[in-house]
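Project standup — Tuesday

K.O.: blocked on the structure for the chain from last sprint. Re-posting the sequence here as requested.
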Amino acid sequence: MTAAPGVKKLKELVEYQEGSIVSRTLLDKKTGTVTLFAFDRGQGLSEHTAPFDAMVYVLEGEVEVTISGKPYRLKEGEMIIMPANEPHALTALDRFKMLLVMIREE
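H.V.: unblocked you, prediction finished:
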């Protein structure tokens, strides 16, 4: 997937859907991915692990990110790193949008 040139507003590239999680992949390379998500209130991702580091950047709203059993509340403009191989989960405390950047190690 090749990125198209041009200035974009990240928040406008993905829309909320009632009772759902919506995602849009912006970049998908063998070294990593960049994906936008829109979570309706109460939606989330159950606890899981990934073999690579991931960064969550909150574009709007509020989310609880749990990493290895420790909860973190994030709001617009805040970010957190989820280390590789550590269990993590996400729960939307309000509708929220995030940018997820995953880096794969070769």
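K.O.: great, moving the ticket to review. The chain has no helices and nine strands. The chain has one domain: 20-103.
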